[in-house]
Design goal:
By secondary structure, the protein is of the alpha+beta class. It is built from 6 helices and 4 strands, in the order H-E-E-E-E-H-H-H-H-H. The protein has one domain.
Length: 125
């Protein structure tokens, strides 16, 4: 009973919607990285402050594929270290973000909705 009450209390903060088989979008009120970000993909789950259009959703699905092929934790370590190195280089967090190799791949191919079907593994390298 306790867990059912806990789950019901969470429903006001989160809305889980299934987009495709195996993929979930969890709608949240605030993005953990700040208001300028729309969505984040963590371990195959997509957290978003609003429903995503097809290219935004594809962008996050590309990140899900990147995370999966690096077995998740190494992806996050690589992402964080690369952001930090680029932040030192550019002295600008946003510019560092857009120069991360994972983001470059996702932004370059987000409008190609068939990209994940033809994507080669480790394409960002």
């Amino acid at each position: 009973m306790y867990y059912a009450q806990k789950f019901l209390s969470l429903q006001s903060d989160y809305d889980i919607r299934s987009m495709t088989k195996g993929q979930k979008i969890i709608l949240i009120k605030r993005h953990p990285m700040g208001s300028s970000y729309l969505a984040i993909c963590l371990f195959g789950f997509i957290f978003s402050v609003r429903p995503l259009d097809s290219s935004e959703y594809n962008h996050e699905r590309i990140h899900a594929a990147q995370q999966k092929e690096l077995l998740y934790l190494p992806f996050f370590l690589w992402y964080g270290i690369e952001w930090f190195v680029l932040y030192i280089k550019y002295r600008d967090g946003k510019k560092a973000y857009f120069h991360i190799r994972f983001e470059k791949e996702a932004y370059r191919h987000q409008d190609d909705l068939d990209y994940l079907k033809k994507r080669k593994h480790f394409h960002y390298v």
